[in-house]
Protein backbone atom coordinates (compact mmCIF):
# COMPACT_ATOMS: atom_id res chain seq x y z
CA UNK A 1 0.00 0.00 0.00
CA UNK A 2 1.29 3.47 -0.90
CA UNK A 3 -0.21 6.50 0.77
CA UNK A 4 0.24 10.26 0.95
CA UNK A 5 -0.20 12.13 4.23
CA UNK A 6 -1.18 15.64 3.25
CA UNK A 7 -1.52 18.65 5.50
CA UNK A 8 0.15 21.95 6.39
CA UNK A 9 3.34 22.12 8.46
CA UNK A 10 2.63 20.88 11.97
CA UNK A 11 -0.51 18.97 10.98
CA UNK A 12 0.93 15.76 12.44
CA UNK A 13 2.15 13.98 9.30
CA UNK A 14 5.49 12.91 10.80
CA UNK A 15 3.85 11.83 14.06
CA UNK A 16 1.34 9.63 12.25
CA UNK A 17 3.89 8.30 9.74
CA UNK A 18 6.12 7.13 12.61
CA UNK A 19 3.20 5.23 14.10
CA UNK A 20 2.37 3.56 10.78
CA UNK A 21 6.02 2.53 10.39
CA UNK A 22 5.94 0.89 13.83
CA UNK A 23 2.59 -0.75 13.37
CA UNK A 24 2.51 -1.72 9.71
CA UNK A 25 6.16 -1.99 8.66
CA UNK A 26 5.63 0.74 6.09
CA UNK A 27 8.48 3.08 5.13
CA UNK A 28 8.26 6.81 5.83
CA UNK A 29 9.52 8.91 2.94
CA UNK A 30 9.84 12.44 4.27
CA UNK A 31 11.48 14.83 1.81
CA UNK A 32 12.02 17.29 4.69
CA UNK A 33 14.02 14.63 6.60
CA UNK A 34 15.95 13.72 3.45
CA UNK A 35 16.85 17.36 2.79
CA UNK A 36 17.90 17.91 6.42
CA UNK A 37 20.10 14.79 6.20
CA UNK A 38 21.65 16.11 2.96
CA UNK A 39 22.42 19.40 4.67
CA UNK A 40 23.92 17.72 7.69
CA UNK A 41 26.28 15.66 5.58
CA UNK A 42 27.13 18.69 3.45
CA UNK A 43 26.23 17.16 0.07
CA UNK A 44 26.01 19.49 -2.96
CA UNK A 45 22.19 19.17 -2.84
CA UNK A 46 22.23 19.93 0.88
CA UNK A 47 24.28 23.08 0.35
CA UNK A 48 22.07 24.19 -2.49
CA UNK A 49 18.79 23.96 -0.54
CA UNK A 50 19.91 25.38 2.82
CA UNK A 51 18.92 29.01 2.31
CA UNK A 52 15.59 28.14 0.71
CA UNK A 53 14.65 25.84 3.60
CA UNK A 54 15.67 28.39 6.21
CA UNK A 55 13.39 30.91 4.52
CA UNK A 56 10.47 28.43 4.62
CA UNK A 57 10.16 28.34 0.84
CA UNK A 58 9.94 25.26 -1.35
CA UNK A 59 13.05 23.73 -2.90
CA UNK A 60 12.95 22.75 -6.57
CA UNK A 61 10.57 20.04 -7.73
CA UNK A 62 13.39 18.23 -9.46
CA UNK A 63 15.51 17.88 -6.33
CA UNK A 64 12.75 16.38 -4.18
CA UNK A 65 11.41 14.10 -6.91
CA UNK A 66 14.92 12.70 -7.47
CA UNK A 67 15.23 12.04 -3.73
CA UNK A 68 11.89 10.22 -3.68
CA UNK A 69 12.83 8.01 -6.65
CA UNK A 70 16.14 7.09 -5.02
CA UNK A 71 14.44 6.28 -1.71
CA UNK A 72 11.81 4.07 -3.38
CA UNK A 73 14.58 2.13 -5.10
CA UNK A 74 15.98 1.18 -1.70
CA UNK A 75 12.68 -0.31 -0.51
CA UNK A 76 11.58 -3.92 -0.71
CA UNK A 77 8.90 -4.60 -3.34
CA UNK A 78 6.33 -5.51 -0.69
CA UNK A 79 6.97 -2.55 1.59
CA UNK A 80 4.39 0.22 1.51
CA UNK A 81 5.45 3.86 1.25
CA UNK A 82 4.15 6.76 3.30
CA UNK A 83 4.80 10.02 1.48
CA UNK A 84 5.22 12.71 4.14
CA UNK A 85 5.71 16.28 2.92
CA UNK A 86 5.71 15.17 -0.73
CA UNK A 87 4.18 15.96 -3.18
CA UNK A 88 3.89 19.67 -2.41
CA UNK A 89 3.17 21.06 -5.91
CA UNK A 90 1.18 19.96 -8.95
CA UNK A 91 4.46 19.23 -10.77
CA UNK A 92 5.55 16.95 -7.92
CA UNK A 93 2.18 15.16 -7.97
CA UNK A 94 2.69 14.51 -11.67
CA UNK A 95 6.24 13.28 -11.12
CA UNK A 96 5.08 10.99 -8.34
CA UNK A 97 2.65 9.25 -10.70
CA UNK A 98 5.47 8.60 -13.16
CA UNK A 99 7.93 7.56 -10.44
CA UNK A 100 5.43 5.06 -9.00
CA UNK A 101 4.35 3.70 -12.39
CA UNK A 102 7.98 3.10 -13.38
CA UNK A 103 8.29 0.90 -10.30
CA UNK A 104 5.02 -0.97 -10.69
CA UNK A 105 3.45 0.91 -7.77
CA UNK A 106 0.34 3.05 -7.48
CA UNK A 107 -1.33 5.26 -4.89
CA UNK A 108 -3.96 3.76 -2.61
CA UNK A 109 -4.91 6.68 -0.36
CA UNK A 110 -4.34 10.39 0.04
CA UNK A 111 -5.13 11.22 3.65
CA UNK A 112 -5.68 14.88 4.42
CA UNK A 113 -5.08 15.95 8.01
CA UNK A 114 -7.54 18.79 8.53
CA UNK A 115 -6.27 21.29 11.06
CA UNK A 116 -7.05 24.71 12.33
CA UNK A 117 -4.30 27.03 11.11
CA UNK A 118 -4.19 29.01 14.33
CA UNK A 119 -3.16 25.89 16.24
CA UNK A 120 -0.26 25.18 13.92
CA UNK A 121 2.01 27.95 15.16
CA UNK A 122 1.72 26.50 18.68
CA UNK A 123 2.35 23.00 17.41
CA UNK A 124 5.41 24.01 15.45
CA UNK A 125 7.03 26.37 17.92
CA UNK A 126 6.61 23.69 20.66
CA UNK A 127 8.08 20.87 18.56
CA UNK A 128 11.39 19.21 19.50
CA UNK A 129 13.05 15.85 18.79
CA UNK A 130 15.52 13.51 20.41
CA UNK A 131 18.97 14.40 19.06
CA UNK A 132 19.94 10.73 19.01
CA UNK A 133 16.96 8.79 17.60
CA UNK A 134 14.72 11.54 16.23
CA UNK A 135 11.62 10.70 18.28
CA UNK A 136 9.26 13.67 18.18
CA UNK A 137 7.98 15.56 21.24
CA UNK A 138 6.07 18.71 22.07
CA UNK A 139 6.43 21.19 24.94
CA UNK A 140 2.74 20.90 25.79
CA UNK A 141 1.22 17.97 23.89
CA UNK A 142 3.86 15.27 24.25
CA UNK A 143 6.55 15.68 26.89
CA UNK A 144 8.99 12.81 27.51
CA UNK A 145 7.65 10.55 30.31
CA UNK A 146 10.77 11.21 32.41
CA UNK A 147 11.97 14.82 32.21
CA UNK A 148 14.84 15.40 29.74
CA UNK A 149 15.03 11.71 28.81
CA UNK A 150 13.94 10.24 25.49
CA UNK A 151 11.18 7.63 25.96
CA UNK A 152 12.62 5.50 23.17
CA UNK A 153 16.43 5.55 23.49
CA UNK A 154 17.07 7.20 26.88
CA UNK A 155 19.21 10.01 25.44
CA UNK A 156 19.22 13.37 27.22
CA UNK A 157 19.83 15.69 24.30
CA UNK A 158 17.05 17.23 22.25
CA UNK A 159 17.00 19.60 19.31
CA UNK A 160 14.69 22.08 17.61
CA UNK A 161 14.50 22.85 13.91
CA UNK A 162 15.82 26.30 12.97
CA UNK A 163 12.82 26.80 10.65
CA UNK A 164 10.34 26.10 13.48
CA UNK A 165 9.99 29.75 14.42
CA UNK A 166 6.83 31.84 14.29
CA UNK A 167 8.02 33.96 11.38
CA UNK A 168 9.13 31.15 9.05
CA UNK A 169 6.01 29.16 9.89
CA UNK A 170 3.90 31.89 8.29
CA UNK A 171 5.86 31.57 5.02
CA UNK A 172 5.59 27.76 5.15
CA UNK A 173 1.82 28.00 5.62
CA UNK A 174 1.50 30.47 2.77
CA UNK A 175 3.46 28.06 0.56
CA UNK A 176 1.10 25.27 1.58
CA UNK A 177 -1.99 27.32 0.78
CA UNK A 178 -0.66 28.57 -2.55
CA UNK A 179 1.07 25.49 -3.94
CA UNK A 180 0.12 22.35 -2.02
CA UNK A 181 -3.58 22.65 -1.19
CA UNK A 182 -4.38 23.05 -4.92
CA UNK A 183 -3.19 19.48 -5.60
CA UNK A 184 -6.03 17.99 -3.53
CA UNK A 185 -8.61 18.28 -6.33
CA UNK A 186 -6.31 16.23 -8.59
CA UNK A 187 -6.53 13.34 -6.17
CA UNK A 188 -10.17 13.97 -5.36
CA UNK A 189 -11.04 13.50 -9.02
CA UNK A 190 -9.39 10.08 -8.75
CA UNK A 191 -11.41 9.17 -5.65
CA UNK A 192 -8.29 8.82 -3.49
CA UNK A 193 -8.88 11.45 -0.79
CA UNK A 194 -10.01 10.73 2.78
CA UNK A 195 -10.10 13.37 5.48
CA UNK A 196 -9.27 13.01 9.16
CA UNK A 197 -9.72 15.45 12.00
CA UNK A 198 -6.12 16.45 12.69
CA UNK A 199 -7.17 18.55 15.69
CA UNK A 200 -8.11 15.43 17.65
CA UNK A 201 -5.56 13.91 20.03
CA UNK A 202 -2.77 11.84 18.47
CA UNK A 203 -4.30 8.43 19.32
CA UNK A 204 -7.61 9.39 17.85
CA UNK A 205 -5.97 10.66 14.65
CA UNK A 206 -4.14 7.30 14.41
CA UNK A 207 -7.43 5.43 14.87
CA UNK A 208 -9.05 7.45 12.09
CA UNK A 209 -6.14 6.68 9.74
CA UNK A 210 -6.13 2.97 10.63
CA UNK A 211 -9.84 2.81 9.82
CA UNK A 212 -9.19 4.25 6.36
CA UNK A 213 -6.34 1.84 5.64
CA UNK A 214 -8.44 -1.15 6.82
CA UNK A 215 -11.42 -0.22 4.71
P1 LIG B 1 4.26 17.62 10.51
O1 LIG B 1 5.11 16.39 10.24
O2 LIG B 1 2.94 17.57 9.80
O3 LIG B 1 4.99 18.91 10.26
P2 LIG B 1 4.50 16.78 13.33
O4 LIG B 1 4.03 15.37 13.27
O5 LIG B 1 5.97 17.00 13.47
O6 LIG B 1 3.90 17.61 12.06
O7 LIG B 1 3.71 17.50 14.50
C1 LIG B 1 4.02 18.85 14.89
C2 LIG B 1 4.07 18.96 16.41
O8 LIG B 1 2.73 18.79 16.92
C3 LIG B 1 4.93 17.88 17.10
O9 LIG B 1 5.61 18.47 18.18
C4 LIG B 1 3.92 16.84 17.57
O10 LIG B 1 4.36 16.21 18.77
C5 LIG B 1 2.65 17.66 17.79
N1 LIG B 1 1.44 16.93 17.39
C6 LIG B 1 1.27 16.07 16.35
N2 LIG B 1 0.00 15.60 16.30
C7 LIG B 1 -0.66 16.20 17.32
C8 LIG B 1 -2.02 16.13 17.81
N3 LIG B 1 -2.94 15.36 17.21
N4 LIG B 1 -2.33 16.89 18.88
C9 LIG B 1 -1.40 17.69 19.47
N5 LIG B 1 -0.11 17.79 19.08
C10 LIG B 1 0.26 17.06 18.01
P1 LIG C 1 9.13 19.64 6.28
O1 LIG C 1 10.10 18.82 7.10
O2 LIG C 1 8.21 18.78 5.47
O3 LIG C 1 8.42 20.67 7.12
O4 LIG C 1 10.01 20.43 5.21
C1 LIG C 1 10.99 21.38 5.62
C2 LIG C 1 11.43 22.22 4.42
O5 LIG C 1 12.04 21.39 3.42
C3 LIG C 1 10.30 22.92 3.66
O6 LIG C 1 9.95 24.17 4.25
C4 LIG C 1 10.93 23.10 2.27
O7 LIG C 1 11.87 24.15 2.24
C5 LIG C 1 11.69 21.79 2.11
N1 LIG C 1 10.85 20.71 1.52
C6 LIG C 1 10.50 19.53 2.09
N2 LIG C 1 9.76 18.78 1.26
C7 LIG C 1 9.62 19.50 0.12
C8 LIG C 1 8.94 19.28 -1.11
N3 LIG C 1 8.23 18.15 -1.34
N4 LIG C 1 9.02 20.26 -2.06
C9 LIG C 1 9.72 21.39 -1.86
N5 LIG C 1 10.37 21.66 -0.72
C10 LIG C 1 10.33 20.73 0.28
What does this entry look like structurally?
There is one protein chain. The protein is of the alpha/beta class and 215 residues long. Helices cover 47% and strands 15% of the residues. It contains 9 helices and 8 strands. The chain has helices at 13-24, 31-40, 44-55, 61-73, 90-102, 117-125, 166-180, 184-189, 202-213, and strands at residues 3-6, 27-30, 81-84, 109-114, 127-130, 136-138, 158-159, 193-197. It has a 5-stranded parallel sheet, sandwiched between helices. A hairpin with a 5-residue loop joins strand 5 and strand 6. Helix 2 (31-40) crosses helix 3 (44-55) and helix 4 (61-73) packs parallel to helix 5 (90-102). The longest helix is centred in the C-terminal third of the chain and has 15 residues, at 166-180. The radius of gyration is 17 Å and the shape is globular. The mean pLDDT is 97. Adenosine-5'-diphosphate binds at residues 7, 9-15, 123, 126-127, 136-138, 141-142, 201-202, 205.
**What is the overall shape?**
globular
Heteromolecules bound: adenosine-5'-diphosphate, adenosine monophosphate
How many E strands?
Answer: 8
DSSP helix count? 9
- In which order are the strands of the major sheet placed? 2-3-1-4-8
In helices, the fraction of residues equals: 40-55%
| Helix vs. strand class | alpha/beta
Low-confidence stretches: none
CA-CA gap between termini: 12 Å
Strand content: 5-15%
Question: What's the story with the biggest beta sheet?
Answer: 5 strands, parallel
User: Compute the gyration radius: what is it?
Assistant: 17 Å
Instruction: Write the H/E string, N to C.
Output: EHEHHHEHEHEEEHHEH
**Mean of residue pLDDT values:** 97
